[in-house]
Amino acid sequence: MHHISRYLLLTVVVVLSLLGFEIPVGPAAAHASSTSKPSAPSQGPPEHVILFVLEGFGQDSLKGGAMPTLSKLVKDGAATWSATGVNPALRLPTMASLVTGMPVEKHGITWNVFEFSRGYSRSPSMFDYLDLSGGRDSAIFYMDESLYQLARPEVYTDYQLCGALRPECRSEKIVSYIRQYFQKATSGHGYGHAILSVPHLLVVHLPEAGRAGVAHGWNSKEYRQALQAVDAAMKSVLDVFKEHGLSNRTTVLVTALSGPGTDLSGEEPTTTGTPTVPWIASGVGIKHGQVIHQPVSIIDTGATVMRILGLETHTEWESKAVEEIFQAAAVEPAAASSRK
Questions:
Q1: What is the pTM of this model?
Q2: DSSP 3-state helix, strand, coil percentages of the chain (rounded to 5)?
Q3: Which domains does the chain have, with CATH numbers?
Q4: 3-state per-residue secondary structure call for 117-146
């Protein structure tokens, strides 16, 4: 009977070993059991993306240590400072290109203020494609009234918006909205009528630095303070994800609608030609300390979000995933699934 028990034990050990379990044996096992420490949560495939959209920001904005959070994202991730923007360099057309993956001549939004009579954008957005390809939800926080034009109601998106006409609408106010959103989204009752859990894509528009540069000058104290406020807001959003245990499942993208020196708010652009903007990726699945060499456009943001989440990119887009940033080669896209 003793031999049978030893045989059964040996069989269990062999089976567990074949399944990949490490089985400590003998006195070392007891020692390991008593001295081992809990390991940190391991990183898995990205399940969430944070997309920060800044204004009036470029590589020189990092000088002087005004943006330590963003500097760390750059150091730990992949970056280019010469991604292609769109023409005309205005807020609404540029944001429309970012979310639709189309140039201005295709999505057709050439104006720069919200016009109720024009209705919502008719072009499919990355939010539509996220839902269509994998049942992924989005939460969008905009800080300009013109972007109402892009806030088309859908069951898989939640929008919250404040703008320049409200003096209290600053970067820290948007952070408070996001904290309230996460509290409701994780309460078990959902947020509003749509999303019942933490969204897969969070879009955070932070234009404060660009506005300060236009109003006070690009070398002003107010511009530097605004950069610091934007950086603090980014840190706060990252802290929210950390508090909810999501950091090891999250990838961060950062881009800008304009670099320093550009006023996005007028009826006509203040610069000619197609501008260049920063484009940064950091976090789960992204190479560390990578200088991006391939051509990148702000239009490529949507397809890259899809690629991060392992979803099919729709071929009618002009948006293309920035493959150079990824640690691993692309895998077979996830099949469409119903929302849980």
A1: 0.84
A2: 40, 15, 45
A3: 2-35 (no CATH), 48-325 (3.40.720.10)
A4: HHCCCCCCCHHHHHHHHHCCCEEEEECCHH
**What is the residue type of 194?**
A
Please report, in tens digits, the pLDDT of each residue of the chain (340 residues total): 433 333 333 333 333 343 343 333 333 333 333 333 333 445 678 999 999 999 999 999 999 999 999 999 999 999 999 999 999 999 999 999 999 999 999 999 999 999 999 999 889 999 999 999 999 999 999 999 999 999 999 989 999 998 877 878 899 999 999 999 998 888 766 555 455 678 999 999 999 999 999 999 999 999 999 999 999 999 999 999 999 999 999 999 999 999 999 999 988 888 888 899 999 999 999 999 999 999 999 999 999 999 999 998 776 789 999 999 999 887 665 544 444 4
Residues 52/232, Cβ–Cβ less than 8 Å:
no
- Per-residue tokens: 96: 């429309």
**Rounded Cα gap, residues 323 and 278, in angstroms:** 17
Cα separation values, 64 from 1, 61, 116, 225, 272, Å: 76, 8, 43, 12, 29
Q: Are the C-beta atoms of 80 and 291 separated by less than 8 Å?
A: yes
Task: Work out the widest C-alpha separation in the chain, in whole angstroms.
Answer: 90
